[in-house]
């Protein structure tokens, strides 16, 4: 599947997300930080998806010579049905001005104690992952996935799959 003829605009300058687009598409996106329009720490799947869509539309507005705007958003969601557990969700929205597609990366459990702190202290997941890692900027590198799996899964790889899923309907003849 050749995506190299398409120009992608990405609604962030986050390095893990930029790497994800390069891995998924084989091209370097035009990166521009745009507002997500949702809270800095989304706490539901709906808010996470809305943030991704807002970013995809906002970046294509600002980079009109791109073919597809991409919005990548990380967020947390609580499963009260099966597991009583919080999960991290990594969503990609792809928008070409007419058609909108979504891709969701790996759904990964996050310690409930972390999310209790996020809610009580009004902090973001990255603050806790940085603290547990003893470093800063984890959200630009392996992220929570990297820390919790001891490096077996990285944030860029999870978003890579979300980007691949969201862009596939634009490039595969099977969706026409
Ligand atoms: O620069 P932008 O594109 O805004 O990227 P971000 O990482 O700051 O922001 P997101 O909107 O994707 O994620 C919402 C919050 O959740 C945090 N987060 C999401 N996934 C994470 C991960 O894998 N590791 C650490 N923090 C994560 C993130 O840092 C934010 O505080």
From TrEMBL:
Keyword annotations from UniProtKB, A to Z: Hydrolase, Magnesium, Manganese, Metal-binding, Nucleotide metabolism, Nucleotide-binding
Cofactor requirement: Mg(2+); Mn(2+)
GO MF, any single term: ITPase activity
Name the record gives this protein: inosine/xanthosine triphosphatase
Gene3D superfamilies reported in the protein's UniProt record: 3.90.950.10
EC number: 3.6.1.73
Catalytic activity, as annotated: ITP + H2O = IDP + phosphate + H(+); XTP + H2O = XDP + phosphate + H(+)
Cross-referenced InterPro entries: ITPase-like_fam, NTPase/PRRC1, YjjX_NTPase
Domain Non-canonical purine NTP phosphatase/PRRC1: 11-171
Upper lineage: Bacteria, Bacillati, Bacillota, Bacilli, Bacillales
Pfam families membership: NTPase_I-T
């Amino acid at each position: 599947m050749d995506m190299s003829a398409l120009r992608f605009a990405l609604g962030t300058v986050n390095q893990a997300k930029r790497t994800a687009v390069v891995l998924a598409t084989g091209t370097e996106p035009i990166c521009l930080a745009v507002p997500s329009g949702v809270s800095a720490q989304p706490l539901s799947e709906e808010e996470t998806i809305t943030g991704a869509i807002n970013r995809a539309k906002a970046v294509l507005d600002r980079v009109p010579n791109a073919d597809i705007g991409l919005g990548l958003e990380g967020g947390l969601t609580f499963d009260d049905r099966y597991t009583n557990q919080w999960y991290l969700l990594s969503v990609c929205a792809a928008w070409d001005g007419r058609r909108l597609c979504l891709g969701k990366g790996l759904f990964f459990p996050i310690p409930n104690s972390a999310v209790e702190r996020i809610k009580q202290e009004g902090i973001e997941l990255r603050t806790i992952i940085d603290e547990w890692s003893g470093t800063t900027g984890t959200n630009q590198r392996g992220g929570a996935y990297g820390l919790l799996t001891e490096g077996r899964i990285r944030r860029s790889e999870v978003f890579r799959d979300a980007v691949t899923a969201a862009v596939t309907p634009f490039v595969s003849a099977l969706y026409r």
